[in-house]
Protein: ZSWM7 protein
Organism: Chaetorhynchus papuensis
Amino acid sequence: MDGSTLPAVAEELLREIKKAFQESSHGTDTFSSRLKFIFGPSAVPALDLVDQRSVTRVVAPSGRTLYQVLGSSGKLYTCYSSCHFCTCPAFGFSVLQKSESLLCKHILAVYLSQAMGACQELSVSEEQLTNILLTEEEDEG
């Protein structure tokens, strides 16, 4: 997680969750009220996505990484934790245009999955990673 993309309070909460899971792998119940307070309506659906193991970390041999999140609608969204971005419409509208939310449920699910060690892992070739990126561009355009 890049410390410059989220408010310090959000970064600290994600660090606490990661530490708690490393020490005892207990549930997020301890953190749910703070997650809701900081991340609003994205918190509960993001936790559901984590519980369903919907987050996949996609890594190419060069080390380039992106995340794919299977949304509740069955659509696959691409998230970039390095620049705090998701390809879903909610991110574009609620986060970028209206500034109503810090992030969408998909990118929050990525951060929570990282903290809890709950990401699926997928190794792909550079060509496959490029194809994923190009497909996203075509979908957007």
Remarks:
- Strands lie at 55-59, 65-70, 76-80, 85-86, 120-123.
